[in-house]
Design brief:
CATH topology of the largest domain: Rossmann fold
InterPro entries: Epimerase_deHydtase (IPR001509), Lipid_A_modif_metabolic_enz (IPR050177), NAD(P)-bd_dom_sf (IPR036291)
Largest sheet: 5 strands, parallel
Number of strands: 8
Order of helices and strands: EHEHEHEHEEHEHEHH
Distance between the termini: 49 Å
Shape: globular
Strand content: 15-25%
Protein name: Nucleoside-diphosphate-sugar epimerase
CATH architecture of the largest domain: 3-Layer(aba) Sandwich
Structural class: alpha/beta
Domain NAD-dependent epimerase/dehydratase: 3-190
Organism: Anaerocolumna xylanovorans DSM 12503
Low-confidence stretches: none
Pfam family, one: Epimerase
CATH class of the largest domain: Alpha Beta
Number of helices: 8
Length: 257
C-alpha cells in the first residue's frame, strides 16, 4: 500500500510518517514544503491513501492561508482527477473551520474542495476537525501552549498566562496517530455531524497545566501515580527536558574546545 503524507516535516506529519514506517506492507511517500511538483505528481499517480496534513495556521499575510490551505488542497484534488485516481483522503482540518477568521475560512474552504471531490469521484474523505494538540516535537512559541510552557520552564524562562481559569480541550499526539491509523481499516471515530474526531479529549485549565509542569520541573510527585492526562503531560515535558540537556551539552563541549 502506497501512502502519501503531506506536511511530512511538521509536528503531525513527523509522527504520522514514523508510525506508518513501522507498519508492514506500507510504502510512505513524504511531501514537504520544498518538494517539487513533479515529485508530488508521481506520488498522486500511484498512492492508495493520502494523509493531507500540510497547511498554514499562522501568518501575518492573509493570502498565505488561501495558498497553504485552499490552493494546496485544490492541487492535490486536481492531480488525483488528472491521474484518474479516486484515492481516499484523510484531511487534518481544525475546530476553527467554523470561525469566520482568515484561517478558519481557509480550512472550511479546503473541506469543501474535498467534499466535492468525494461526491464527484465517489471516493472517501475523512475530515478531522482537530483541537489543541500536544506531545513531543511540537514547535514552542507557535501554536501549542503546552510546547511553549515546557520549552520555557526547562530553560528557566517565564511563561505568560493571562487567565489561569481558561479551559482548553487538548489531544495528545499519540492518541491522534492511533486514531489516524485506525482509519486505514475504516474504524475512525465519526461524529453525528459527519466530521471525524479524536475520541480521547482532555480538558484542563491553563493554571493547572502550568502548575503540573512546574511540579515536574521540581521533581515533585511519582509518575506511576499520575492520572492519564498528567502522564501524557509528563512524557511531553521529559522530551523537552532531554532536548535542553542535549543542547547544553553541545554548548558546553564547544565552549571547552
Amino acid at each position: 500500500m502506497n501512502i502519501l503524507v503531506t506536511g511530512a516535516g511538521g509536528f503531525l506529519g513527523r509522527h504520522m510518517t514514523a508510525a506508518l514506517k513501522d507498519m508492514e506492507g506500507i510504502t510512505v511517500y513524504e511531501s514537504f514544503h520544498q518538494t517539487k511538483k513533479e515529485e508530488v505528481d508521481s506520488y498522486l499517480a500511484s498512492c492508495d491513501f493520502i494523509y493531507h496534513l500540510a497547511g498554514v495556521n499562522r501568518s501575518d499575510n492573509i493570502t498565505d492561508f488561501t495558498e497553504g490551505n485552499v490552493r494546496l488542497t485544490e492541487e492535490i484534488r486536481n492531480g488525483l482527477v488528472r491521474f484518474h485516481n479516486p484515492c481516499p483522503i484523510l484531511y487534518a482540518s481544525s475546530i476553527h473551520a467554523i470561525v469566520p477568521s482568515p484561517y478558519g475560512k481557509s480550512k472550511k474552504a479546503a473541506e469543501e474542495v474535498l467534499r466535492a471531490y468525494e461526491r464527484n469521484l465517489k471516493s472517501k474523505v475523512y475530515i478531522y476537525r482537530l483541537t489543541n494538540l500536544f506531545g513531543s516535537g511540537a514547535k514552542p512559541n507557535y501554536n501549542s501552549v503546552v510546547a511553549t510552557f515546557c520549552y520555557n520552564i526547562v530553560r528557566g524562562l517565564p511563561i505568560v498566562i493571562h487567565d489561569r481559569n481558561t479551559i482548553l480541550n487538548l489531544c495528545c499526539i499519540e492518541d491522534v496517530i492511533k486514531e489516524f491509523c485506525r482509519i486505514l481499516k475504516e474504524e475512525g471515530f465519526k461524529g453525528e455531524d459527519g466530521y471525524y474526531g479524536i475520541p480521547k479529549v482532555y480538558q484542563a485549565s491553563l493554571g493547572m497545566i502550568a502548575d503540573t509542569l512546574y511540579a515536574f520541573h521540581k521533581n515533585e510527585g511519582r509518575f506511576e501515580e499520575l492520572p492519564e492526562f498528567e502522564r501524557a503531560l509528563y512524557r511531553t515535558f521529559l522530551s523537552y527536558k532531554e532536548e535542553w540537556v542535549k543542547e547544553r551539552r553541545i554548548y558546553e563541549d564547544s565552549a571547552n574546545q
